[in-house]
Amino acid sequence: MAGKILLLRGSEKMTRSSSLISCRDVSYVTQEDVFLGTLTVKETLYFGARLRLPELAKTELHELVDETMAKMGLEECADSTIGNWHLRGISSGERRRLSIAVAILAQPQVLCLDEATTGLDSAASSFVVQALRNVARDGKIVVCSVHQPTDDVFRLFDDLLLISAGEVVYFGESHGAVKFFADSGFPCPIRRNPPDHFLRCIAPEFDQVLAALKQTQRLNFTELSAADGLLNGTTAETRATLVKKYKSSIFADTARKRIQELELLLTEKHDDNSSQSSSEVVAVKKRETMVEPILHTNTSLQLAHV
């Protein structure tokens, strides 16, 4: 999808075609968890379900709420008050999972999250990402930005997108990123967390830190440079090398092919829905249902430094 996105009667219109994307197909989870602190977890979900799905009966709403709580591991705290600055409530990890639960009530095809694990310990982060992976297994696309994930959390993601200064440094399968950096001349040091290494290569703030460290007389910069080759150049130079390497890599070719296939699928879907009768459209939708889980069962990690 490229170009402008126009809000049109609850739908988003793509400029390349006349296809419309319903706002219910996409959900966004903000970095901050904003709730009414005096409500319980179950009340919050029911309130959200009534707002998002007013056409459902009360029994159906309660069934949906129970199913969503089970999926996100919130059953034990269902009757617990969320809490606020003066009222003790659920933990930060449970609040984060509740935000995700509210977002998936309407069964969106795409779920976007801003810093899904910020402020959580390693155990809570792992729980949240595992819950997101369960959402992806249901045939949904999950895209989230994460800062400094642990190696265990990083392994739960299927795809990785690295962005720095508005340029794509890497986009492909997560397990292929380490090899890509090594082939580009920036291998991940032993005992260093791969995501930390990726950010170390593309975040310009490290240059400011090194400039301050060089002025410290106690720092043996020669020994430090020998241990970490990244200290011999600037982040801008490293980023430029990685971007150039990526553009000519098999990862970029694969990404372009996947985008072209998706654009073709969207075009065919629109053409079929426009030209065929209602009975034929039903058959098309049944055929698409077989394809979509393959395309949508994806959990993407975005380590972005813009």
TrEMBL record:
Residues 147-201 form the ABC transporter family G domain. Signal peptide: none annotated. One of its GO terms (molecular function) is ABC-type transporter activity. Residues 11-118 form the ABC transporter domain. Keywords: Membrane, Transmembrane, Transmembrane helix, Transport. Its main location: membrane. Belongs to the ABC transporter superfamily. ABCG family. Eye pigment precursor importer (TC 3.A.1.204) subfamily. PANTHER family: ABC TRANSPORTER G FAMILY MEMBER 11 (PTHR48042), ABC-2 TYPE TRANSPORTER TRANSMEMBRANE DOMAIN-CONTAINING PROTEIN (PTHR48042:SF8). This is ABC transporter domain-containing protein. The lineage of its organism: Eukaryota, Viridiplantae, Streptophyta, Embryophyta, Tracheophyta.
